[in-house]
Design a protein that fits this description.
With about 525 residues, the protein is mainly α. It has 2 domains: about 1-245 and about 415-510, no CATH class; about 265-320, no CATH class. About 70% of the residues lie in helices and about 0% in strands. It has helices at about 1-25, 30-35, 45-60, 70-90, 100-125, 130-155, 165-175, 195-215, 230-245, 250-280, 285-320, 325, 330-335, 345-355, 360-375, 400-410, 420-450, 455-475, 485-510. Helix 8 packs antiparallel against helix 18 and helix 8 packs parallel to helix 19 (about 485-510). It starts with a helix and ends with a helix.
Length: about 525
């Protein structure tokens, strides 16, 4: 009885830590962690994850627990990063701001270790479908709480700025998260994240893929129904409201890409059904059938393009009411004069139009990272891009106040602000290839899960594919390995694939015995 009680206590502790981890996902920049690391990417959930590594994951490995097969390319990626970074210690980048290669690389590997910790926990924690469902339910609770908080914040921000929020809300924010100073003078919803773009990242990489998948397939992880409506319908609607109130730009493109994929799946079905009805009705010949299929495909494609353009235009028009960056697109001179600056298409013309749209600094980060990769295709070592940054930045970077502050005043090294460019510049072509191979395997695992009969398999299978699309775009605005959303979602897909494969093996064993 005593042993049983201790076992129950141990399981309860682990479950509580998982609950705290998931509930703390919105806290991207926890003050306590920032105090000791100095990094803006300081997720609160890293604390319970570190505890889970000690009390659960290490014993799991000692008991000969196995990692999902999806982890293999990720392990090789880490080994490549170690090798490239080791060689990078002997390269010709110059030290800056009292930093050196060893210091920067150590910090970079710590952030990678934080991300991998999230992945390892969520790739191995769920051992059966019941535990998997419970994890998703906690995620739903996190999403519901965050949406409620954000709706209140959005209501209080109407016609005002964050600095004028009630004292009680600002006190809670200051207790739980460090936010960018720019947030105080903005009227964009930022939730409990460092800035609005980080806030919407949680929706694009976790909540939207799961809820869009559920709504599209009309499947839910809950049995509760209200007439024809499921829980995910309400969560998705209110999530979209707070998403619009955050007025993201890269985030909006990520959402559009997810909706595009879902539209493609839907229009495939529409095209097939219309063609079958027309062919049966007119009893067409083989040549006529091909013509019908082509005409229907063209009509469906045009309808899709019109609806997607209308959605993007509507989103931008609505967001322009309070976000000056979106309002720039509706400036009368934009289409008539400024857009013409793109032609002929050169690096300078792209940077000039980027300046007109308040996007120039991002382009500078990306272009400079690409130039580093051009000079060092094998990579300069994890965390070391900043040592090669300024002498490869475009000349126009000197005109940017943000860039000058980063180079001459900030106490940290400049980075690429883009995970794809960072992978190329720091881990080289081989590191980039292994990382993208891992993402491809995650896609294949999601496709495998989607074959399952249980609703949870179907939901997470399609959600995994939507996540990949979202991450392809979100990667252009993030470059930190410590942001947990990538690792939590890929961990869930890996564990779901493992559970599904185990179920298939068990069925085959029963059938052949």
């Amino acid at each position: 009885m005593k042993k049983l009680s201790l076992l129950q206590l141990y399981r309860g502790l682990n479950s509580t830590l998982i609950f705290i981890t998931l509930l703390g996902l919105p806290l991207t920049s926890f003050p306590f962690i920032i105090k000791y690391t100095g990094s803006e990417v300081a997720p609160f959930s890293a604390i319970p994850i570190a505890m889970l590594l000690i009390v659960w994951f290490i014993p799991f490995i000692v008991r000969r627990g196995k990692l999902p097969v999806e982890s293999v390319p990720l392990i090789y990626f880490v080994l490549i990063c170690v090798a490239v970074t080791g060689l990078g210690l002997f390269m010709d980048g110059f030290y800056s701001k009292d930093k050196n290669f060893l210091y920067q690389s150590t910090r970079a590997f710590v952030t990678l270790g934080v991300g991998l910790s999230f992945y390892l926990i969520f790739a191995t924690w769920e051992q059966d479908l019941k535990t998997y469902k419970q994890t998703l339910q906690i995620l739903y609770l996190t999403g519901g709480v965050l949406i409620l908080w954000s709706l209140v914040e959005g209501f209080l921000l109407a016609g005002s700025r964050a600095i004028n929020l009630p004292k009680w809300m600002l006190d809670i924010k200051n207790l739980l998260v460090v936010q960018s100073p720019n947030v105080l003078y903005s009227n964009r919803v930022s939730g409990l994240a460092f800035e609005p773009s980080w806030f919407v990242r949680l929706f694009n990489l976790i909540f939207f893929p799961i809820w869009l998948s559920s709504v599209y397939q009309r499947r839910s992880i809950f049995k509760f129904r209200l007439w024809k409506f499921i829980v995910e319908d309400g969560l998705l609607v209110f999530a979209f409201v707070v998403f619009v109130l955050a007025a993201p730009r890269i985030g909006m493109l990520a959402l559009v890409l997810m909706l595009t994929y879902l539209s493609f799946l839907f229009l495939q079905r529409v095209h097939k059904n219309i063609c079958l009805k027309l062919i049966r009705r007119f009893k067409s010949s083989e040549g006529q059938q091909r013509l019908i299929k082509s005409l229907v495909a063209l009509a469906v494609l045009l309808t899709f393009l019109i609806l997607m353009v209308a959605f993007i235009f509507g989103f931008m028009t609505f967001a322009a009411q309070w976000d000056w960056r979106y309002a720039l697109f509706f400036d009368g001179s934009f289409l008539s004069e400024e857009l013409q600056l793109l032609f002929p298409l050169t690096e300078d013309s792209i940077l000039t139009i980027g300046h007109k749209l308040a996007f120039q600094e991002r382009l500078i980060y990306w272009i400079t990272g690409w130039e580093i990769f051009n000079d060092y295709p094998m990579g300069v070592g994890l965390g070391n891009a900043g040592f090669y940054f300024w002498d490869r930045a475009p000349g126009i970077a000197h005109n940017s106040l943000e860039m000058r502050n980063l180079v001459y005043r900030a106490g940290f090294m400049t980075n690429t602000k883009n995970i794809w460019v960072r992978l190329l510049a720091e881990s080289g072509i081989f590191g980039f290839a292994l990382f993208t191979t891992w993402l491809y395997i995650v896609w294949r695992s999601a496709h495998l899960i989607q074959k399952g009969k249980d609703s949870i398999y179907r939901i997470m299978g399609l959600a995994g594919k939507l996540f990949i699309f979202a991450y392809l775009v979100e990667g252009f605005s993030m470059d930190s390995f410590a942001m947990p959303y990538l690792w939590v979602m890929t961990g869930l897909i890996a564990s779901g694939s493992k559970i599904y494969r185990q179920g298939v093996i068990q069925k085959e064993t029963v059938r052949t015995s």
